[in-house]
Amino acid sequence: MAGSVEIAAMRRALELAARGRQTRNPQVGAVILSPGGDVIAEGWHHGAGTAHAEVDALSHLAHGDARGATAIVTLEPCSHTGRTGPCTEALIAAGVARVVYALDDPGEHEGGGAARLRAAGIEVEGGALEDEARAFLDPWLTARRLGRPHVTVKWAQSLDGRAAAADGSSQWITGPVARADVHRRRAEADAIVAGTGTVLADDPALTARDGEQLLPHQPVPVIIGSREVPADARIRRHPHAPIVHRTHDLAAVLDDLADRGLHRVFVEGGPTLASAFLAAGLADRVLAYIAPTLIGGPRAALTDLGVETIAGQRRLAIDAVERLGDDLLVIALPEGETH
Fold first, then answer.
1. What region, left, alpha or beta, does residue 217 occupy, with left being phi > 0 and alpha being psi -120 to 50 degrees?
2. On the CB side of 295, how many CA atoms lie within 13 Å of its CA?
3. Which of 100, 236, 239, 338 has its CA 20 to 30 A from that of 206?
4. Positive or negative, the Cα torsion across 319, 321, 322, 327?
5. pLDDT at 84 > cutoff 80
6. Which residues are catalytic?
């Protein structure tokens, strides 16, 4: 069983993994420990086509320095040749004596690295900080399992379920703490999606900000709909050029985003678009920000979901409820899903 030094190194490896680019490849970190338990090298995967985390860490050592060492890796070392060579062979060649990893690699071709290492006489242990690693890689794991990006659908509503007043105005239903939380979550996404109706009505910037300051990571804006977006719209000044899809085929949109390496999708673009993703069964997580206010009127947070009788209601499982200032955030998942 992994000892306290190895667990501490795994926590560090998860911190390193977060430095990697959010692409179609998983974010992976690695720490190399000497036989005495000292950290002698660190590495992470910088993006598609670059060295994997284990190889990146080993590259900081002179030949022979890793002999007898322990490699701590957040994901099972791969055993196949893609754009880079197998990490298992690099670890074997370096003379590593023990490998501790958090999660099994679910890939049909990438998996099996643990068995290859054991066959070479290396001691291998999996499952160290597995829950933390699974939560960290949840969007990537979902994308691998479903063959499409992980989709979060977000909306803000009044206590009586309204997203706007009768005249369409909606700024602001929730308070500053809730809005700051939204911006933090935007910064964790690869893409932020809105419909043309929301873009035309609200003229959103679709950026991730801390106050007026742009956060370091910005999601790529994606606009879905057939109406033209004005040349002077705020979204045109986004750090990333908007991707425009003049289609209502959401599966095709997600396929295109996956091809672009965008696998964490944040849908924030109004009741019609949110409802379309939910009705199509393409929402992997729901974020409902609920303000203690009453608005009334016709502008509900969601529109038609295709539910005609109560027997057809779409049940969700509550994953968490958070207090954000005066507001509540309810995080829900499709029934049967786990975080």
1. beta
2. 27
3. 338
4. positive
5. no
6. 54
